[in-house]
Design a protein that fits this description.
binds magnesium ion; Alkaline Phosphatase, subunit A; single chain; four-stranded antiparallel beta sheet; 2 domains; Arylsulfatase, C-terminal domain; alpha/beta; about 20% strand
């Protein structure tokens, strides 16, 4: 063999990667987006072509759940893989963090960002945090190298003299809320111009993807909308049949399209998992500014299906085959799934409630049956096992009907036959009720509650 040819072979061997590149992880969440608010989930009025295409190319879950019925606990659970009771990030009176709250995600909790960062991932959080704004709980102390967004909800920090009903107005005052927009720990704008948030979050995400394309990276893009007060940019305002609510969802859909286009442009779509979901169901009491849970009962704040069953779409072209899954899965599964994809172990000595979805995502294997617990604050209101769901307590999410009802025997619904939870069939299925009671008891005996943070 000629020397030049030998050199070429040696050079080729040296340049070949030793192991497949670690996959990039992108989690995109909407805030208060309902189960029925996307075209691919049956909305007849809101146009979501980019999410519809993502669902057509990826795996769309019919039975995907947020880990809680309101924002703060839901996000704590998504990033830790743990029911919020374990981290103390839930409450019965104060259900989320407020600007005056002293608590937050405890520094000792291990987030997905921390685990991935330690393994060499670039990490960035864009959008709404809502897991605490004091030392120890902030994005930069929970594994994110960069942060651009709001520390809490866009309806907090209301200005004095704000007219009653402004939050749920179709045209809320631009300067009605004094919410700060932050970049890496510094306030860059206050009040944040909310009409520009979706666009600026998107531009920041696309820039991060371009900068970190050599990978691996973890992007947690937590959109502010469609949480009220609702603001859309001029390009989207007044364009949807569903009013300003639909305008913000259509802009969010544009944003998802931009992120996916950036991944394709950089040639990394096939090595990037994108997961889209919502932090809880639609805020139905918002006088026409809340979304739709489709056929599901009630919405945000409740443990009826409409409060916690949300869109869930997984996309990774060439790895995830297009399809629809009826498996029960939830936001706490995302951390174990991402760690498994990165070849990393679960954090040692930590109780994790989620499961690795990889066998389902990549090989179409069904998940083993497991119970799912619907917490409201620190109490289990309901439990799902297979197609069956038992309610031990029920309460409307918000509004005048906040009367707590206890059920013994529990209400029992078959979610396959009755996804709207209308026909209680407990009397005919005592054995199912017993099985679910046993699952709840076993779970409760295993859970060590964290120090309450709310
Ligand atoms: Mg929310």
């Amino acid at each position: 063999m000629k020397a030049a040819a030998r050199l070429l072979i040696l050079w080729t061997l040296a340049a070949a990667p030793l192991a497949p590149a670690k996959p990039n992880i992108v989690i995109i969440t909407a805030d208060d987006l309902g189960y029925g608010d996307l075209g691919c989930y049956g909305s007849p009025v809101i146009r979501t072509p980019h999410l519809d295409r993502m669902a057509a190319e990826g795996l769309r879950f019919t039975d995907f759940y947020s880990a809680a019925e309101v924002c703060t606990p839901s996000r704590a659970a998504l990033l830790t893989g743990r029911y919020p009771l374990r981290s103390g990030m839930c409450g019965n009176e104060r259900r989320v963090l407020f600007p005056g709250s002293k608590g937050g995600l405890p520094a000792g909790e291990i987030t997905l960002a921390e685990a991935l960062k330690e393994a060499g991932y670039a990490t960035r959080h864009i959008g709404k945090w809502h897991l605490g704004h004091h030392s120890g709980s902030r994005p930069q102390e929970q594994g994110f190298e960069g942060f651009f967004g709001l520390p809490y909800s866009n309806d907090m920090d209301a200005r004095a003299g704000l007219p009653k009903g402004a939050t749920a107005s179709a045209d809320p005052p631009r300067d009605g809320w004094n919410v700060p927009l932050m970049r890496d720990g510094e306030i860059v704008e206050r009040p944040a111009d909310q009409t520009t948030l979706t666009r600026r979050y998107t531009e920041d995400a696309v820039k991060f993807i371009a900068e970190k394309k050599s990978g691996p990276f973890f992007l947690y893009l937590a959109h502010t909308f469609p949480h009220v007060p609702l603001f859309a940019s001029p390009e989207f305002k007044g364009k949807s049949r569903a009013g300003i609510y639909g305008d913000t969802v259509e802009e969010l859909d544009w944003s998802v399209g931009q992120v996916i286009a950036a991944l394709r442009r950089e040639g990394i779509a096939g090595n990037t998992l994108v997961f889209f979901t919502s932090d809880n169901g639609p805020w139905l009491v918002m006088e026409g500014q809340g979304g739709s849970a489709g056929p599901l009962r009630d919405g945000k704040g409740s443990t009826w299906e409409g409060g916690m069953r949300v869109p869930g779409i997984a996309w990774m072209p060439g790895r995830i085959a297009p399809g629809v899954s009826n498996s029960t899965a939830h936001a706490m599964d995302l951390m174990p799934t991402a760690l498994a994809m990165a070849g990393l172990p679960l954090p040692a000595g930590v109780a994790i409630d989620g499961a690795d979805l990889s066998p389902l995502l990549f090989d179409g294997k069904p998940l083993p049956e497991r119970p799912f617990f619907y917490y409201r604050g620190d109490r289990i209101f309901a439990c799902r096992l297979g197609e069956w769901k038992a309610h031990f307590q029920t309460q409307a999410g918000y509004g005048a009907m906040q009367d707590l009802q206890r059920h013994d025997p529990p209400l029992l619904y078959h979610l396959g036959h009755d996804p709207s939870e209308k026909r209680d069939v407990a009397a005919g299925h005592p054995e199912i009720v017993t099985k679910i009671r046993d699952a709840v008891k076993a779970h409760q005996e295993s859970v060590v509650p964290g120090k309450p943070q709310l």
